Every structure is written in structure tokens, then in C-alpha cells.
Amino acid sequence: MSDQVREQKIKINGIWMHIAEHGTGPLVLLLQGFPEFWYSWRHQMGFLANKGYHAVAPDMRGYGETDSPVTPTSYTVFHLVDDIIGLIDHFGEQMVVVVGADWGALAAWHLSLFRPDRVNGFGSSLCSIPTLTPSQTRHQYVPEELQFYAHKFQESGFTGAFNYYRAMDLSWELLAPMARIKNHTSLPCKLISGDIDIGFKGGGGTKEYVEGSTFKTLVPNHEVVILAGRHHFIQ
Length: 235
Description:
By secondary structure, this protein is an alpha/beta fold. The protein has 10 helices and 8 strands. The two termini are 17 Å apart.
């Protein structure tokens, strides 16, 4: 890694979290999804640092060198939001810009809903579950990236990463009582997707939802950017 990227472990929300950081200035949190680590943001970290920002990318709970609780009940959206609040507090910041991909996007969305007092703005890629063939995956990662991810998962295993999916039903149950009161945000948001991401162009109606009137009502201060020829992993 570049000697300009600093790595450390910090204790937040009852776990030890491994983070990478680059630059100084206003805090920008970069949250990865499945099946990645902080490393997936390395290009954006350098860019942000050069623009005068403090870019911080953690290994999310269950990934890489961050603690990986065994029980799926430790991976609800509330745990993810609490982890982010712990990161913000660790750096002594009141407000943050947060950017998330995949599961990191889900965490960023819910942070903006639950704690808008701590968010200046957020960026998100689609929170879809990638369904790619091995051939498609190879075309999205260069060999050094595949080697890095394979090495990390050999060390950590997949239990933590899969626990996000095992906790989905529990998160839905816990979120149900607030569905009508915590379903919109006026924060500035940029949504980015590849036009051939299966989560965007598939049969689930995501494309129509993002481009339709309902999304504009729930997130009125937003910009949608669709990247031509790009799949799920757009960093």
C-alpha cells in the first residue's frame, strides 16, 4: 500500500475495527460492500486526499481485519449505523459526508434516515446483490485485486460477510414500526449505478423506481448518475 495510506485498529461499538485513512480535512467515510474491503476505495481515497479531504475507509464489521461477530443478530442495520456513528465520534467530528457501495450503501442510507444531524451529504451505489458469473467477475477486477481479496478471505472466512444476509429478515422486522416516519431524507444525495448492474436493469423494478416520481418524493435533493457499460462494482 502507499505510505500515504495510514492503517490502524480502533475500538468502536464493542468491536475492533480496522480502518485505512488518507489526507487531512473534512471527514469523508467510504463504506464497502460484498465481497470487498477498504482496499476497494483506494483510488477514491487518493483523489479525495488531494482535494483536501480526510478519507477514511473501514473494513466493515465481519470483513478483513475488523472483528467478525459469529451471530447474525450482530449485523442488523442498527449495528451498521452505530458503527458509523462510532467512527465519526472517534475522529471528533460532528458532521460527515458518507459514501457507500452495496451493503455500505445500505448503511449510508440508514445513517441519513436515523441521524441526519451527523450527515452533510451522501453518495450511494445501488444496494443490490450482485449475481455475476466467474467470467464477469474476472472482467471487473484486475489480478492484483483478486489476489488481495482472496488472501483476505482466506484469513477471515466468509461467516461475517454472509451474516449480513442472514440478518436481513431481522432488520426488516426491526424497521417495520418506523417505515412510515423514517422513509425520506432531504439531505443532498448522489446515486450512481452501472447500466448493466443486474440490480438496476433486472426485473425487480429498480430502474423504474429510481427514475420515477416516488424516489423523487422520498429523496428530493438527489442526482442520479448512470454509467454506461458498467456492472455492480463501479469503484
